[in-house]
Design goal:
single chain, about 290 residues, alpha+beta, OB fold (Dihydrolipoamide Acetyltransferase, E2P), 4 domains, about 15% helix
Length: about 290
């Protein structure tokens, strides 16, 4: 096994010799440097230690006794520390002197849902064709292979979760307990970012143990919120809009990001409050 094959893995290493500012570890007859601040006083030469292997910023082989959650054999959460639009994002997996790149190839097509600094990605490490360590977000199949089944009692409860996958079909999330959740586009007003931490309401616990979530408020609250959004829109457009209860679902969603049913409920509330009227294919503010 060459040095490149060892990178990103946890290995048993032998403390071979003292050098300037550190020690040399021997792993399968290959040498890795470890800074002296990582070696405690009670460690001795020829002692075996468990360490994580990588290359530092200079490209030299280095080891650390601080084992990150994310390795080539394991997944872990890592915080996004830098976003570079044409390259990807760098994450902190816990190395003392190096962040790891998540390539744009493994990020959503639309940069509007790319993670921001402070978001967290669930990932493992891979080697690229040049033998460099890269981080790669978990795949859907890997989540399903290690699924923690959610209990039925979770229905209507609020959960905190992080988005691990973002697609046109919706957002896939993992809760702190390891439950896999899904947010359909109709259950949100804005698409959450990959890596964003969200609080959502459980609207279904499925037979396979996964959960469906909503970022929308409960119906009664939602009517009020949607009605306010429609009334604000009317105020901003001289009291007139060319949407009404017979408008197409697509037109309504394009403007308000809500379903036609939610739109009609909100219109009904505004009409009940005598704030609007519908006439000649228009909805207008009612001036009493």
């Amino acid at each position: 096994m060459n040095n490149e094959n060892l990178l990103g893995t946890v290995q048993s290493a032998t403390l071979k010799k003292k050098v300037t500012n550190g020690f040399i570890l021997n792993v399968n007859d290959k040498e890795f440097f470890i800074p002296e601040e990582e070696i405690s006083e009670n460690m001795e030469l020829n002692q075996n230690v468990q360490c994580f292997l990588y290359t530092n910023k200079k490209g030299d082989n280095q080891a650390t006794l601080e084992i990150p959650e994310a390795t080539r054999e394991s997944y872990g959460w890592a915080e996004v520390v830098e976003v570079i639009p044409n390259m990807g994002v760098f994450v902190d997996i816990g190395l003392p002197d190096k962040d790891i790149l998540v390539s744009s190839d493994h990020l959503p097509l639309f940069k509007s849902v790319w993670p921001k600094e402070g978001d967290n990605l669930f990932l493992s490490l891979e080697l690229d064709k040049k033998g460099r360590l890269l981080a790669e977000p978990i795949s859907e199949q890997e989540v399903l292979d290690d699924l923690e089944e959610a209990p039925k009692s979770l229905l209507n409860q609020e959960v905190t979760a992080r988005v691990y996958r973002s697609t046109k079909a919706g957002s896939a999330v993992l809760t702190g307990e390891g439950y896999r959740g899904f947010i359909h586009p109709t259950e949100r007003k804005e698409e959450p970012r990959l890596g964003e931490t969200i609080t959502a309401r459980v609207i279904d616990v499925k037979e396979d143990g996964t959960i469906n979530l909503s970022l929308r408020p409960l119906k009664q609250e939602g009517i009020t919120e949607d009605a306010e959004a429609i009334y604000d829109y009317l105020l901003e457009n001289d009291g007139v809009m060319y949407l009404h209860d017979k408008s197409s679902p697509e037109e309504i969603r394009d403007t308000f990001k809500i379903s036609k049913a939610a739109f009609k409920r909100a219109l009904g509330q505004l009409m009940k409050q005598d704030k609007i009227e519908q006439k000649d294919g228009k909805t207008t503010i009612k001036h009493n």
